[in-house]
Amino acid sequence: MASRKRERKRRLGKGIxxxxxxxxxxxxxxxxAVMVVFSFNDQKTNYYWKGFTLRWYEKLFTDSSIVEYxxxxxxxxxxxxxxxxxxxxxxxxxxxxxxxRIKKLINNSLYIPIVIPEVVLGLSLLMLFEIIHLPLGxxxxxxxxxxxxxxxxxxxMRGRLAGMDLSVEEASMDLGANRLVTFFRVTLPMLIxxxxxxxxxxxxxxxxxxxxxxxxxxxxxxxLPVKILSLVKTGLSPEVNALTTIxxxxxxxxxxxxxVVQVLMRKRALTHTKSYF
Amino acid sequence: MxxxxxxxxGFKMKHTKMSSEISTLERTRNRKRNLIPxxxxxxxxxIWMMVFVLLPLIYVVFISFMQRNTFGGIDYHFTTANYTEIxxxxxxxxxxxxIKLAFLTTAxxxxxxxxxxxxxxxxxxxxxxxLLMLIMIPFWTNTLVRLYSINLxxxxxxxxxxxxxxxxxxxxxxxxxxxxxxxxxxxLISMLPFAILPLYASIEKLDKAYLEASSDLGARxxxxxxxxxxxxxxxxxxxxxxxxxxxxxxxxxVPEALGGGKVMLIGSLIRNQFLITKNWPFGASLSxxxxxxxxxxxxxxxxxxxxxxxxxx
Lengths: 277, 313
Known about the structure:
heterodimer, A: mainly alpha, MetI-like fold, 12 helices, globular, B: mainly alpha, 2 domains, 14 helices, 2 strands, disordered N terminus, disordered C terminus
């Protein structure tokens, strides 16, 4: 009797847990659902549902100024990712290998862009570009994005380097390879997984950044999020909904492909190990 | 005996001196040999952090003590007026409201996030990974468009309002736009994932044996939760507080997208000093205040948890 009561209680607890989780996920996803639904809404002001249409998607592909800003954002994100992966990867190795006087200062300064409010980083970069007379625009945005991406790349890389056997490098140099060859043929291949996740992180941070880009973008060279910020105040056109819907569809497809590839690779790895026996 | 000891001691001293001489020699040689690789590898990141992070921040501190000239530029005369200006009631009100809303957001994030993180942590690892992925996916949609969707949901002539009126929950159209409430909802939507991830990480690490021991010793579930689970997952809770509180405090696009300019927070105030009213020294002093609040939070964090936990997050 008592056990049945306990069982009932347990099941009730589980039910409440499930309902709770569904509610929280609904809260997180409600805005996205509204965004997708209203991208098909046959009305410009978008306040209530009028009817189904595909014209915003059509407009997106035929005449739309908003797509231009997406290209800007992609270009900036790719450039910032490339720079931060290069500087970050080499820097992570350098900061572990070598001792120098201000190393501790540099190591600590890596946490600054991560922990200080973005608005402060944004305005300090704006001041810097003003002093060195760098015109605001693409170059300034790319440099700024790289500034907050590099620390993330280095922290991810450090995690990777910590789990690595460094004697392999020594072995390479003992066998007559110089530092450069060792770096490219031994160290770098071992770092590839870290580089991939660092690049992924940088790209994600860069493409969705609003605050820092807002400070350092020029009037004609701005990113998609900054453009959307300026449009939000007057009301977004469903065109923007359509564009973001396409973007999330691309991301979801990418994730799906990734998981399918992983499953396939695991299967292949299994058959390979089998063939050894 | 004593003299033997002395001799031995003397020899030892000489020996250590010699070896230290060798090692300094070797070190200098090593340093010379390492100079070029060290410069090429550690050099770029060192220069980058100096030029783009450290020097600009020092310059912000410097500017916060300068005067603004009539053309929106900077007069290089020392003053503390920018800091005393903060004490004006109108600005104190903005700062107080920012702290209040950020605090409210953080508290709600933890209250909503903790049970969910606990729920996910109790699931088998494959399902847990999928559930966490579902938390992460909204990160890849534009935050502003999501905020705008909240705006659409909250419209007085929107569908939520008419639905609620139809079922009789409210008698007149919804009036939540441009209020503090909707700004907090917006902050919650954009911050909740940041709260859930560190909470999950610390709850998942929790050793179930402690919970069993507690209940075996006769503690009721509520007591076990408060006296065992919460203290053991405290680092995760504090990490979440930091990850939510700091960005919420300086955030300006949420109040701008949802508050319609009626909800003024410290982030917008700073932004306006730089991009609209061109009072850089005052904006600089406000941002120094913001950094100080941040540092205070981080200091509290290091008191409660070790800093290297932060790297995991």
